[in-house]
Amino acid sequence: MSFLASPRPDAQDAMQRLESIYGVTPVDQADIIIALGGDGLMLDALHAAIKTGAKVYGMNLGSVGFLMNEFTENDLPKKIAAAEETHIHPLRTFGEDINGNRFEALAINEVSLLRETRQTAKIKIRIDGRDRLDELQADGVLVATPAGSTAYNLSAHGPILPLDSRLLALTPISAFRPRRWTGALLPHGSKLGFEVIDPHLRPVSAVADNLEFREVAQVEVEEASDITLTMLFDTGRNLSERILAEQFKN
Questions:
Q1: What is the pLDDT of residue 250?
Q2: Catalytic residue chosen out of the listed positions 39, 44, 97, 209
Q3: N or C: which end of the chain has fewer CB within 10 A?
């Protein structure tokens, strides 16, 4: 087990106590990464797991903790052995900025296109090579995975997706035109293309989880089906159950 903690003092203290009990293992040599913090730290741990193939077990020492289990110091190996596995696929995004520089990134929750200035973003949307929306005028637009559908996507009034739905959520952010367009549900194998209209006048950034690319001209997004991440949850508290329960909260 390797322990990864947020900068919060309580998380750092917990990591020191746990390492004194269970030992210290580098992240790149671990079978299990124990993430101590909130959902942001869980995303960091999952990105680390992409490189190593480790399973990730989170314990909540943050503010939200939707993706986390309850914190405990006792019998941690036993709890991990009894945990339920949830398998997810990230999104792969690649594109080009206005200067012709190429970029590529992976996102576990969502890929967002966001206006950089007071000017409304204007974005053309293409699905599987076919133009579907010639011009979206909005603060932006995002593509969310089922695992990320309860995060920024939900705040933007997007749908909550069950983990086994094999869908992606395409959700506008404060859409101005078309005024009544509320987004779309897409098959998980869809290839999405975004073209920024007049990107010099109306600059747009692309954000893959917490990695940002400025002044983008075009962006493509698809599921990285070749990458599988494993999250561990305490019995009866798996991510599918949490996503279902979230739909019945006030």
A1: 65
A2: 39
A3: C
